[in-house]
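Ops channel
N.P.: pipeline sanity check, posting one input/output pair.
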């Protein structure tokens, strides 16, 4: 009882010191309207205690049911961190070895998978075809058994040799579900229920089951032909270890709080999950531009180390491990339709602590290093003119060259159209922040005018002044 009282005091103290509920309310209302999001549930967790939680909008457009903080959302790919945790629990028990071939746990695998390991699957470095949804003549099956899925994903050749590349793969996590079943002796969904949901008192969490009626469940919407429509992901997947967890912001607050201690996993296991995977050449294994651990994207924000993941259903979990802060955002509009839950989470973090305010909300400051700004402006000019630049790290030069020709052409055209670059702010990076395998020393933020539009640019700089990574986005 005393523990609960202490946690409540800490929660109220944190709320008084930082989180601004009225500002978050106004921010969410603006973003929901701009992005056409029907409903959102949000939670902020600081030092293991929930300091803010609230629901907004409509859960079900047909019944006009409001979103609540115990509304059950489909998490989609946030499931991967649960699957990775389950694997690490079995590693701790000696039932799974990270560097064992997956053929040790899965029968009838093709010969081409002989050197694919459990670690490869966790880090998307196995080279196995990424698509896990069984299709016939391009149309997904309604009922997808584990046997049918395994047969389907076993046929294509490897995309690259295991450990020599990285490509985001739902298939890899489906296969990890089979590994969990073999090593534990239990069905994947039963393992998740007893070993994770029940153990952490995640009482409203469950595995997606199209046959099951789930109280307070929230459908996912998409924008089709300009109108809000049903998402149409109607398949029943027997071992959905890549996208099958359904949960609430309240339960996810318990989930992320479990990473503070050792109630779920040992600290050494958590550290492995949050360590960038390496390719056989020693470089970080990059997935959509970010390093990847076991079920978590690893990146940095405003100079702070973050571990995070998105779900295509419009969900995001943002965690600052060195600052003991997490932001959970669950929407019911899919990501491709523009819900942008990652941006929402970062905005909420900024209303929780000023040091996390998004750069686009800051007013320009006097430029402390005009020579750096000139260098970065010259970099954009060189890239826009199709020239190589020594200002980029070798790793970034190689990354830029690997972009598909059409995408690279779009980027160079944009850089060629930059008319101004105005300094906004700079952060000193924490020691754990890396981009494209290189440690980052400083991060600089700019506002730019590009072909009559306003863009925001972020440059990650090494201690030597090289650009390890750059990112840009329009207002």
């Amino acid at each position: 009882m005393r523990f609960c009282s202490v946690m409540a005091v800490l929660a109220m103290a944190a709320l008084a010191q930082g989180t601004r509920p009225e500002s978050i309310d106004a921010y969410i209302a603006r973003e929901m309207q701009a992005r056409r999001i029907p409903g959102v549930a949000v939670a902020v967790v600081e030092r293991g205690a929930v300091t803010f939680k609230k629901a907004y909008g409509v859960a079900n457009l047909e019944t006009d049911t409001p979103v609540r903080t115990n509304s059950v959302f489909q998490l989609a790919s946030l499931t991967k961190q649960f699957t990775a945790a389950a694997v690490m629990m079995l590693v701790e028990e000696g039932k799974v070895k990270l560097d064992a071939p997956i053929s040790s746990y899965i029968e009838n695998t093709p010969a081409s998978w002989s050197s694919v390991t459990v670690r490869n699957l966790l880090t998307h470095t196995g080279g196995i075809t990424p698509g896990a949804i069984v299709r016939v003549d391009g149309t997904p099956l309604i009922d997808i058994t584990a046997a049918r899925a395994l047969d389907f994903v076993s046929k294509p050749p490897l995309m690259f040799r295991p450990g020599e590349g990285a490509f985001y793969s739902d298939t890899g996590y489906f296969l990890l579900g089979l590994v969990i079943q073999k090593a534990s002796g239990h069905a994947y969904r039963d393992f998740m229920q007893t070993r994770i949901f029940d153990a952490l008192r995640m009482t409203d969490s469950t595995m997606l089951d199209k046959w099951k009626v789930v109280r307070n469940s929230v459908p996912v919407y998409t924008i089709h032909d300009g109108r809000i429509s049903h998402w149409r992901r109607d398949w029943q997947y027997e071992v959905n270890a890549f996208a099958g967890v359904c949960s609430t912001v309240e339960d996810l607050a318990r989930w992320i709080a479990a990473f503070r201690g050792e109630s779920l996993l040992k600290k050494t296991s958590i550290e492995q999950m949050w360590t960038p995977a390496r390719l056989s050449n020693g470089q970080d294994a990059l997935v959509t531009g970010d390093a990847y651990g076991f079920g978590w994207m690893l990146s940095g924000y405003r100079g702070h180390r973050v571990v995070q993941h998105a779900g295509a259903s419009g969900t995001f979990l943002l965690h600052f491990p060195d600052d003991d802060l997490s932001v959970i955002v669950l929407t019911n509009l899919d990501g491709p339709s523009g819900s942008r839950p990652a941006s929402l989470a970062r905005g909420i973090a900024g209303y929780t602590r000023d040091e996390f305010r998004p750069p686009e909300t800051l007013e320009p400051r006097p430029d402390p290093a005009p020579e750096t700004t000139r260098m970065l402006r010259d970099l954009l000019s060189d890239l826009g003119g199709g020239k190589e630049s020594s200002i980029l790290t070798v790793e970034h030069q190689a990354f830029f060259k690997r972009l598909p020709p059409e995408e690279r052409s779009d980027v160079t055209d944009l850089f060629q159209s930059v008319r101004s670059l105005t300094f906004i702010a700079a952060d000193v990076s924490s020691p754990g922040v890396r981009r494209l395998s290189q440690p980052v020393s400083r991060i600089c933020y700019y506002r730019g005018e590009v072909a009559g539009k306003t863009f925001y640019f972020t440059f990650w700089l090494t201690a030597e002044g090289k650009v390890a990574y750059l990112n840009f986005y329009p207002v």
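N.P.: looks fine end to end. The mean pLDDT is 93.
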